[in-house]
Amino acid sequence: MIAMILAAGFGTRLRPLTDRIAKPALPLPGTTLLECNLALAARAGATEVVVNAHHLPHTVARVAREAADRLSLRLHLCFESGAILGTGGALVAARPLLDRGAPFLLLNGDVLTDLDPRRALDAHLATGADTTMVLRPMPKGADFAPVEVDARGNIARIAGLGREAQVAEELRSFAFTGIHVLTPAIFETLPADGASCVNRAGHVGLIRAGRRVSAHVEEGGRWSDVGTPERYLEANLDLLEGRYRLPSVSGFQMSAGIVVAEGASIEDGASLVAPSYVGPGVTVRAGAKVGPRAVLHEGCVVEGEVVEAVVPPGGLVSRGRTVRSAIA
């Protein structure tokens, strides 16, 4: 089976982090967002994966190559030049790789989740649907565009688009997880050229054509759209404390203790408090205080204090400075 990971977006809400690193390539303790999604695809049975790239494509390509090699996945990279193609246009560009007359997975590369796509794949095969979207109960206060599902488990509308409202029809609203099970039918409603949205053009087009777009609802597990600094901080700290049940990635498993990666330097007189993660090439100077709940990513230098916080790659926390409940 083949899967595709969408990794071309700009990540504007995460600037300035995403001015240097594409959002799917952002690091997490011992891994990256992109590697977590590649691992989910592999757990679902994928042996090949397509990753598209547009913004800072070299950072996406590097992470994808390293992770695919660790996971024994055959990797296909699709570089988008010029205007970004969107989720639908990216699929069309990769159609020669994906259109094999069989279902394939599509995952958003900027989502962190421990949901198992195998369950969605099994449900899709059981229903015989043209496409399946993996949904979750709508979080309280969330502003996600609703996906409305009828009593038969079919999707009627996405963000208000799709089937016309039926008298006395009861629809339930859910949030979309960014995980799809698709068949080549999706290409029938996507524009052949240019940018498009797989949800609003692809799935909605199938709904309007009377085709079956099925809902697979996951009640449990953890899921986060890592699209803001607050959610990126939360994702790092949640992984630090083992709150996600993820497939093993990078040969690394987080625990509640202190993890110091190879190549890190901890000077005498530095203080580390669990749980903390010290990445490769990190330097913690004498007198520095790290933790609890601190994540220090590759190549950063800490001279001051880091508590419930993340220091991104190459960051510096100078002497006398304290970073608390924030990204440095």
Annotation keywords:
4-stranded parallel beta sheet; alpha/beta; 328 residues; transferase; 2 domains; UDP N-Acetylglucosamine Acyltransferase, domain 1; Spore Coat Polysaccharide Biosynthesis Protein SpsA, Chain A; elongated; transferase activity; 10-stranded mixed beta sheet
* Unreliable residue runs: none
Count of domain modules = 2
| Named CATH architecture of the largest domain | Alpha-Beta Complex
| Percentage of residues assigned to helices | 10-25%
Radius of gyration: 21 Å
Report the end-to-end length measured between terminal Cα atoms. Answer: 40 Å
- The CATH homologous superfamily of the largest domain is named Spore Coat Polysaccharide Biosynthesis Protein SpsA, Chain A
Strand content: 25-35%
Largest sheet: 10 strands, mixed
Count the E strands: 26
Question: Average pLDDT across residues?
Answer: 90
GO molecular function: transferase activity
Protein name: Nucleotidyl transferase involved in threonylcarbamoyladenosine formation
Keywords: Transferase
InterPro entries: Mannose-1P_guanyltransferase, NTP_transferase_dom, Nucleotide-diphossugar_trans, Trimer_LpxA-like_sf
Q: What can be said about this structure in brief?
A:
This protein is an alpha/beta fold. It has helices at about 35-45, 55-70, 85-95, 95-100, 115-125, 200-210, 230-240; strands at about 1-5, 25-30, 30, 50-55, 75-80, 105-110, 110-115, 130-135, 145-150, 155-160, 160, 170-180, 215, 225, 260, 265, 270, 275-280, 285, 290, 295, 300, 305, 310, 315, 320-325.
